[in-house]
């Protein structure tokens, strides 16, 4: 079949050119497939342009902090009436007429004849008179006939007029009838249907409006005392959540802590249930209520809402969206060996986690350099191994371990180019330990619903709340949280 196709193609020079063009396109396409189509296929990594750039070298992660720590915790037709004329038979008798032309006289008929002749004269006169009368009568009759004829004509005209009128009336009536039927059908069928549809739309809108109104009033109530959220902070405190749980604070809520050597006590959300509790939450995403595209200083000090009120409870039992702050995180991890638990959830409710037995963040002078170790979990080891979808240097340039912290106003990332406008934090939406650029982007932009695409992103890059090793570049997670705890031997 291919031979035949080629033979047909070779018959036409225009087709030849088309074939060549297709070949070229497929060659170019396969090159892009290998080396990532710019814009559309942009992912966590930024492929190297070998003409100008040298292969980046991985920055070594600082050694883990050792020492200190805790010991193990315990759907019809009209008929014509024509009359036939009757004929009477002449009388049979014995007399003959007086007139010889009319036959033989009977023997006793002479007297009868005279009488008849006399009578005949009288009769003739009478007949003449009668004839006159008949003439007169017939004259008057013909006048009558004429009159009758005229009357008949008039009547016929009148009748015709009547029939015409009747026809017109009938025609008009049937027209009216049609209209009436149409109107009735419309009224009986369409209007109730339309009314029903409109009514249901109205009901629907009404319930939506009611819901919105109640949401608005609930929000108004909430906003009336925005920060004096009646959160009773528990009396029990400690240098972090682990110490609090050891002191008997076993509900997950907001506590006040003061780590050793830290200038002031601060509020933090403690998770006292997950994997035996004692976790100090340092990062939390759950509804997109807080903007994570912030500057260096904001990331240094921390931002967001530590905790929110749980319905009908006096204490803040639910975490808010926040970033604890790089200074606090750094200080915490330097008190002793620290472990990091990253939990995430997609929009269907599936959950995975990444646990790092070792987690250290250097101080600001050292650009909050990150070090993670001892991975175990179900999310995939993005921080240490890079994106599992990539290979070679494209993968290694997405490793976060050993990277400095970057924000859009301070570029410390692993993307070193002559073009200073190229910055991971600017393109990927948050403050983070970007390399060139990421396999994990927990502080990225929050996309409602999960799937998003390059044309929705501000810079065409995968700037969502991403963990590539689990959901790839173009899926933004519903929930993501990072919590830390002093590392201690488990029982
Ligand atoms: Ca850079």
Automatic annotation (TrEMBL):
Q: Which GO terms describe its molecular function?
A: cell adhesion molecule binding; protein-folding chaperone binding; signaling receptor binding; structural molecule activity
- Using the record for this protein, list the coiled-coil segments as residue ranges, or answer none: 195-222
Q: Subcellular localization, per the record? A: Secreted
Pfam families the record matches: Fib_alpha (PF08702), Fibrinogen_C (PF00147)
Cellular component terms per the entry's GO annotation: cell cortex; endoplasmic reticulum; external side of plasma membrane; extracellular space; fibrinogen complex; platelet alpha granule; synapse
| An individual GO BP term | positive regulation of vasoconstriction
The protein's matches in InterPro entries, at most eight in alphabetical order, are given as: FIB_ANG-like (IPR037579), Fibrinogen-like_C (IPR036056), Fibrinogen_a/b/g_C_1 (IPR014716), Fibrinogen_a/b/g_C_dom (IPR002181), Fibrinogen_a/b/g_coil_dom (IPR012290), Fibrinogen_CS (IPR020837)
Principal location class: secreted
Asked if the keyword Disulfide bond belongs to this entry, the reply reads yes
Q: Which residues form the signal peptide?
A: 1-30
Q: Which SMART domains match?
A: FBG (SM00186), Fib_alpha (SM01212)
Q: What is the purpose of this protein?
A: Cleaved by the protease thrombin to yield monomers which, together with fibrinogen alpha (FGA) and fibrinogen gamma (FGG), polymerize to form an insoluble fibrin matrix. Fibrin has a major function in hemostasis as one of the primary components of blood clots. In addition, functions during the early stages of wound repair to stabilize the lesion and guide cell migration during re-epithelialization. Was originally thought to be essential for platelet aggregation, based on in vitro studies using anticoagulated blood.
Q: What is this protein called?
A: Fibrinogen beta chain
- Gene expressing this chain: FGB
């Amino acid at each position: 079949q291919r031979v035949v196709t080629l033979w047909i193609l070779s018959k036409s020079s225009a087709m030849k050119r088309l074939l060549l063009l297709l070949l070229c396109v497929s060659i170019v396409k396969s090159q892009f497939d290998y080396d990532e189509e710019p814009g559309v296929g942009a992912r966590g990594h930024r492929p190297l342009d070998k003409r100008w750039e040298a292969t980046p070298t991985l920055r070594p992660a600082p050694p883990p902090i050792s020492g200190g720590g805790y010991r193990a915790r315990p759907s019809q037709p009209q008929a014509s009436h024509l009359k036939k004329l009757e004929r009477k038979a002449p009388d049979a008798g014995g007399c003959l007429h007086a007139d010889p032309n009319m036959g033989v006289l009977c023997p006793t008929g002479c007297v009868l004849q005279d009488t008849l002749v006399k009578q005949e004269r009288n009769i003739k006169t009478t007949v003449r008179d009668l004839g006159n009368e008949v003439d007169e009568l017939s004259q008057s009759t013909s006048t009558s006939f004429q009159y009758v004829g005229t009357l008949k004509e008039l009547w016929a005209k009148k009748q015709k007029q009547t029939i015409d009128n009747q026809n017109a009336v009938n025609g008009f009536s049937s027209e009216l009838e049609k209209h009436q039927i149409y109107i009735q059908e419309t009224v009986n069928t369409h209007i109730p249907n339309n009314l029903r549809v409109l009514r249901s739309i109205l009901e629907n809108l009404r319930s939506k409006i009611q819901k919105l109104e109640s949401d608005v009033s609930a929000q108004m109530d909430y906003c009336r005392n925005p920060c004096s959220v009646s959160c009773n902070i528990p009396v029990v405190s400690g240098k972090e959540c682990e110490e609090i749980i050891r002191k008997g604070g076993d509900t997950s809520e907001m506590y006040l802590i003061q780590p050793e050597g830290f200038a002031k006590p601060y509020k933090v959300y403690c998770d006292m249930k997950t994997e035996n509790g004692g976790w100090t939450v340092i990062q939390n995403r759950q509804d997109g209520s807080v903007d994570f595209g912030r500057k260096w200083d904001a990331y240094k000090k921390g931002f967001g809402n530590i905790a929110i009120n749980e319905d009908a409870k006096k204490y803040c039992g639910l975490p808010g969206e926040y970033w604890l702050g790089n200074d606090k995180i750094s200080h915490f991890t330097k008190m002793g060996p620290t472990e990091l638990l990253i939990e995430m959830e997609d929009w269907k409710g599936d959950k995975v986690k990444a646990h790092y037995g070792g987690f250290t963040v250097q101080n600001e002078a050292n650009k909050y350099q990150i070090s993670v170790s001892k991975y175990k979990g179900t999310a995939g080891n993005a921080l240490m191994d890079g994106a599992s979808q990539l290979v070679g240097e494209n993968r290694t340039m997405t490793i976060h371990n050993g990277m400095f912290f970057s924000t859009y106003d301070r570029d410390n990332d692993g993307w070193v180019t002559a073009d200073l406008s190229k910055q991971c934090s600017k393109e990927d939406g948050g403050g983070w330990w970007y390399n060139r650029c990421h396999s994990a982007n927990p502080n990225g932009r929050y996309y409602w619903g999960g799937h998003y695409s390059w044309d929705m992103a501000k810079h065409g890059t995968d700037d969502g709340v991403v963990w590539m090793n689990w959901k790839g570049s173009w899926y933004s997670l519903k929930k993501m949280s990072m919590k830390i705890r002093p590392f201690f031997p488990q029982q």
